[in-house]
Amino acid sequence: MRPERSAPIALRRDCEVTLIPGGQRMTLTAGDEVLVTQSLGGSYTIQTGEGYLARINAEDADVLGLEPTDSPETDECPADNDLFEMERVIEQLKTVFDPEIPVNVVDLGLIYACDAQPLPGGGHRVEIKMSMTAPGCGMGDVLREDAIARVKAAPGVSEVDIELVWDPPWDMSRMSEAARLQLNF
Q1: DSSP state, 24?
Q2: What is the DSSP string of 26-81?
Q3: Which range among 23-32, 39-48, 81-90, 103-112 shows the weakest confidence by mean pLDDT?
Q4: What domains does the chain contain, in order, with CATH numbers?
Q5: Is residue 82 within a helix (H) or strand (E), and if so which, with residue range?
Q6: Sheet containing 25-28: order of strands
Q7: pTM value?
Q8: Percent residues over pLDDT 90 in the chain
């Protein structure tokens, strides 16, 4: 069940959230009313009564009266290290969404490089260079951790390293055509 965007929801219990875009942690109290503005990639972007935007993680969906969505990071993937495909890594990255913009990090153009090397003991090490839409974005570490968890779920991936980079600075020209159409650019 997806929440209705325009209906306020009273939180069912206290919940720690991440403020957007600063990345600070804050606790909301049971009974606080919020509006869900985005529900993508297993997390929820909410607007508080004070006007703050915040992110609620998938495992805290119950605070909104919802069942946790099937997050791609928990999907069953074969563990066979011989099944590695870079396309599966990209598919996993496409399940990570910017909490303010309803577009995944791949189509948004935040993935600058994605390479993989086989490991001597089996499996692959995936190295990713990822940026944010603004240098001061405090959500970088949150999205980085989301991406690491998702990529680790891809078959044949044993290690993941994601470096946040700021050069070259991100701009809208990096977005896919699909993202531009979705955002009416």
Answers
A1: -
A2: EEEPTT-EEEEEEEETTEEEEEETTS-EEEE-GGGGGGGT-PPP--GGGS-----G
A3: 81-90
A4: 9-64 (2.30.30.40), 74-182 (3.30.300.130)
A5: none
A6: 9-10, 33-40, 43-48, 53-56, 15-20, 25-28
A7: 0.83
A8: 77
